[in-house]
Write a structure and sequence with these properties.
About 0% of the residues lie in helices and about 45% in strands. It is built from no helices and 8 strands. The strands form 2 sheets. The chain has a 4-stranded antiparallel beta sheet, with no helix packed on it. Strands 3-2-5-6 form a 4-stranded antiparallel beta sheet, with no helix packed on it. InterPro entries: C2_dom, C2_domain_sf.
């Protein structure tokens, strides 16, 4: 069984969508199959009144047994929580096959733009992540 694991470290330059105060962001991390099905989900704590939040120990770890694991996608959605429904502040997605394999080494740190569906800058997110391949993958 293969797995992807990592940590959400911080976000910066987030848009303020609150009428009073600042946005209250959290990050929803999902592992999605090639057809868009969510097969793993994790959520960070909410940071109140913060456009440049930092998280500590916000770990995600998704295992996936199917052969399509390397074709899956890791998605990071930064959301604002408030009195009404949660509002998306931005998102980033990365194919699993582009994430370095962990062979006893440390996770790699990446900075992703949150403007996946926007021409404007919506800020960015910083994560550490690595893929644990199936046992025997390295021989």
């Amino acid at each position: 069984m293969s797995a992807v694991k990592g940590k959400v470290l911080k976000a910066a330059g987030l848009k303020n969508v609150d009428l009073w105060g600042k946005s209250d962001p959290f990050v929803r991390v999902t592992l999605e199959t090639p057809d868009g099905n969510v097969v793993g989900e994790s959520k960070t704590a909410t940071k109140t009144d913060e456009l440049n939040p930092e998280w500590e120990d916000e770990v995600f770890n998704f295992a996936h047994a199917d052969d399509d694991f390397m074709d899956c996608c890791l998605r990071f959605k930064v959301m604002d929580t408030g009195l009404g429904p949660d509002v998306e502040l931005g998102q980033a997605a990365v194919p699993i096959k582009l994430i370095p394999m962990l062979d006893g080494g440390e996770q790699s740190v990446f900075t992703f733009s949150l403007g996946i569906h926007s021409k404007k800058s919506l800020g960015h997110i910083v994560v550490s992540v690595g893929v644990l391949p199936k046992p025997g993958f390295f021989g």
